[in-house]
């Protein structure tokens, strides 16, 4: 996957991200993103939801248990890619 997207940060600045992976878990979809300008940065894991027109919206994960499960799933995906 070599897809890139641009999102706005909390200050309204445009930030370009590399989409590392998208994956499903427990009836939800998630995206793993890495800022293009800072490849040493942390990976952002966000839930993919859809608006009334069916357009995807990326939202943060507030539930600690959900976030733990998403991190574990993403780490497994990364391990499989290396094999």
UniProtKB/TrEMBL annotation:
Domain of life: Bacteria
Name of the featured protein: Uncharacterized protein
Organism lineage string: Bacteria, Bacillati, Bacillota, Tissierellia, Tissierellales
Family annotation (InterPro entries): UPF0473
């Amino acid at each position: 996957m070599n897809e890139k997207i641009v999102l706005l940060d909390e200050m309204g600045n445009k930030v370009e991200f590399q989409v590392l992976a998208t994956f499903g878990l427990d009836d939800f979809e998630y995206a793993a993103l890495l800022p293009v300008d800072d490849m040493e940065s942390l990976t952002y894991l966000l839930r993919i939801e859809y608006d009334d027109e069916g357009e995807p919206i990326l939202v943060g994960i507030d539930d600690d248990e959900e976030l733990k499960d998403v991190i574990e799933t993403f780490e497994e995906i990364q391990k499989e890619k290396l094999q």
